[in-house]
Automatic annotation (TrEMBL), chains A, B:
PANTHER family attached to this UniProt entry: MAGNESIUM TRANSPORTER MGTE, SLC41A_MGTE INTEGRAL MEMBRANE DOMAIN-CONTAINING PROTEIN
Keywords, sorted A to Z: CBS domain, Cell membrane, Magnesium, Membrane, Metal-binding, Transmembrane, Transmembrane helix, Transport
Lineage: Bacteria, Pseudomonadati, Planctomycetota, Planctomycetia, Pirellulales
TM region positions: 303-324, 377-398, 404-430, 442-465
Function text: Acts as a magnesium transporter.
Organism: Neorhodopirellula lusitana
Domain CBS: 154-219, 220-276
Name of the protein in question: Magnesium transporter MgtE
Length: 470, 470
């Protein structure tokens, strides 16, 4: 997991170079068996983040639990942070409620919300109940938000003062609590009124030049920008694109200050979204898969996706069955059917990718299907002609029959047009209907283009049958 | 473009709500024709980042140039920042060298390097030459780095002092240059010795508690972590995963301080990498495509990829040609060939996606092909059996011939094993050989699995020919 909250360069052990260990999980197992915290902490701190994830993922569950429970809570948090979310969740789920609670409590609130969200409802609830009462209430509040809105991404660990506080008192609080504030964003303090409403932001450096007897309100930026707790991720991404802030304060309906969403938390969610688009486009749907997961879980997840596809495929192939007589007479057609179907699929996927890219960049609106269609048809005409011609030539050279070339060439040309038209517009349509374009575009596209492709080849062939049979 | 450098909440106009304008490019054209900076600045500042990109991308080139050259340089930089890199580069390329230089000079050094890297070599050189001499030298230095190493991602705009400077002098410098430093990361100052070598990092808040007559060296963190200018992106990602710094100082071979790489710059590059994997997996290879690009450019880019595929496809289809006689006798087989080929492709792509994911998480090493293969074969056995059985049943039900079911079922089962084996291991192999797994895995996989699939179906059919013909 990523940690959006800031930190200082005072972590010392990190100064030692990372150990390059070909099989770090073996050493880790040994240390876990010894069950002694100190050497475990030291060994882990000297591994790179990805080696930590690698080593831990290669341990059996018992050893994983031992490692996590042997480490001091803050080191355990540190370790979890370097795992993929799904690994971290699995690991915490394997712990007892008390063990889990002890660790989760050490996390900054945005990571808490993230992790708890990945656990099963019941267990998450039990873990929260194990917190001190007031803490539990606060966590429940954030936990109620989904992790793609501001409320689910914010950190509560911020410097907040009443706007009437004196400069001197702020400076003293800072020096007295230097340790506690170490991991905070110490670039700004957030100032509230008696009703906890956000009234100003205080750039810490202003403290350097201020008279110590003044109230901080005198040196604060009044009416700072803030966002509602319900602001969705894409608006957050847009916000941080438009403003170079490291964080933005988040308020509820009454204007009460809830916390701060950091740019890093938003960047992190954006990366996850892009990664999941890639996985989905390749047919990994039910959440990410790691090869350390149990076999049946991995097989089932993949199969659920494959079985939809095979059914769609069989449907498309049905078209071929309809034209068996034609095929029987002109067997050469069978050679070109897979080519037509694969190539149309490729052209369509390109159009899908460009549409999803333009949607994510905001360069096209889901309503502009006509515009996209026109742009795609022009490309389709050019590429369809080129591909059709190429395949036609191959057919003529190989089979010696002009008309075979004509049939497959025209079919591929026409089907390329169909493929890019569907591929370009379907993502916009799905987006408008609230579906995930990354998941649905692929199979939908392939099936339709396959069907059309087979229809075109075999239909055309049936029409010109006499010309095709030698 | 993203701006990794920090900033303050003191930007005022941003306080006004963003205008929701269905066709912002029309208003933008009007304002461009008026050629008056003030209203242009105001209109643009009130658009969201994505609406700015949308509006600008819909203008004709002339108007785009007018907008960019009418805006004050710092606003032009602001605007460019919200465009995708490719849009920004196109736009700057359309300007005169002087116009471009005036704008590029206003950018923080990491964005300068990014943009210049996207321009054509010659023009980039001319723009740099138009800078003041010392500036030009510094820019050339960074420009020499590729943008996936620390040297290409760092900002030179940092607070740096000699370690012998007095606390009071630092505080004065800060207050005197408050304006200039506004966009800097003011969380830390970086301290160097007489040879410009990095000797310490100064958390600004330490200034709050320090005696003003002390040298800053007394309150600095000595021997801070730093990275070489040559550190590659994946190590940077790993570094920021392991440390919660907002930035890390970058030094050259002599230990001289070059600048700071900010976490945001690294997060941004990571997102780009994930996005480009998705685009590549869908067959958008030659850099990202926007539908605002000229038709032939878009067609050519896509075609270069398609033509490779069609050739590979034709090669695979050749296998079918070899077995025409069998196919002629058992025409029903033609119905199942596309199913076998599509389904194997799907299974293979899933394995590719999981391998690339595990590679990027560091959960598998490129050398662990045997491990991955075993993990994939097990899944392949389960899913291959399920899919094979399903298709077999369909064949029997539809054709009434047991043996047809046997042939297609066994073929799909075996080919699924082949597909996941290739799909799982090829990305590791490509990574080891230094190729880009996202680009090469797809077509390679499809061709080989198609060939094998056709061989299996038609080969088996040929063996059991008597049983298959009615």
């Amino acid at each position: 997991m990523d940690n959006p909250s800031n930190s200082t360069t005072s972590s010392s052990t990190a100064l030692e170079p990372a150990i390059v260990d070909e099989r770090p999980w073996e050493k880790l197992t040994e240390l876990a068996d010894l069950g002694n915290a100190a050497p475990l902490v030291e060994f882990i701190e000297n591994l790179t983040a990805s080696d930590q994830a690698l080593a831990l993922s290669r341990l059996d569950e018992e050893h994983r639990k031992t490692v996590l429970t042997t480490l001091p809570a803050e080191d355990a948090v540190e370790l979890l942070r370097h795992l993929s979310e799904i690994q971290a969740a699995d690991l915490v789920e394997s712990l007892s409620i008390d063990q889990a609670a002890a660790i989760v409590q050490e996390m900054p609130s945005d990571e808490q919300a993230d992790l708890l969200g990945d656990l099963d409802e019941v267990q998450a609830g039990e873990i929260i109940d194990a917190f001190p009462r007031d803490e539990a209430i606060a966590v429940r509040e954030l936990f109620a938000y989904s992790d793609d809105v501001a409320g689910g991404l914010l950190v509560r660990e911020i410097l907040r003062f009443d706007h009437s506080t004196k400069v001197a008192d702020v400076i003293n609080t800072l020096s007295e609590n230097a340790e506690e504030f170490r991991d905070y964003d110490v670039q700004y303090a957030y100032l509230t009124d008696a009703e906890q409403r956000l009234v100003g932001v205080l750039p810490m450096r202003n403290l350097l030049f201020a008279r110590r007897t003044d109230p901080v309100a005198d040196i604060m930026i009044a009416d700072p920008l803030s966002l509602r707790d319900t602001t969705p991720l894409d608006e957050l991404i847009d916000f941080f694109d438009s403003h170079h802030f490291l964080g933005v304060p988040v308020v509820d309906a009454e204007g009460k200050l809830l916390g701060v969403v950091h740019r890093n938390a938003v960047d992190y969610e954006a990366t996850r979204a892009a990664e999941s688009d890639f996985l989905k486009s390749q047919g990994i749907i039910g959440g990410e898969e790691l090869r350390t997961m149990p076999l049946m879980q991995r097989a089932k997840r993949r199969l659920s996706w494959l079985s939809i596809n095979v059914v769609l495929n069989i449907g498309a192939a049905g078209v071929i069955a309809l034209y068996q007589d034609t095929l029987e007479k002109v067997i050469a057609l069978a050679v070109f059917l897979p080519i037509i179907s694969d190539m149309s699929g490729c052209s369509g996927n390109q159009a899908v990718a460009v549409s999803m890219r333009e949607l994510s960049l905001g360069l096209v609106r889901p309503t502009e299907m006509a515009r996209v269609w026109l742009k795609e048809v022009t490309v389709g005409l050019v590429n369809g002609a080129a591909l059709g011609l190429l395949v036609a030539i191959v057919a003529v050279v190989w089979d010696g029959n002009m008309y075979l070339g004509l049939v497959v060439g025209v079919a591929l040309f026409a089907n390329t047009l169909i493929a890019v038209s569907i591929g370009g517009t379907v993502p916009l349509l799905l987006k408008r209907l609230g579906f995930d374009p990354a998941v649905a575009s692929g199979p939908l596209l392939t099936t339709v283009t396959d069907m059309c492709g087979f229809f075109l080849v075999l239909g055309l062939a049936t029409v010109m049958l006499e010309r095709l049979v030698h």
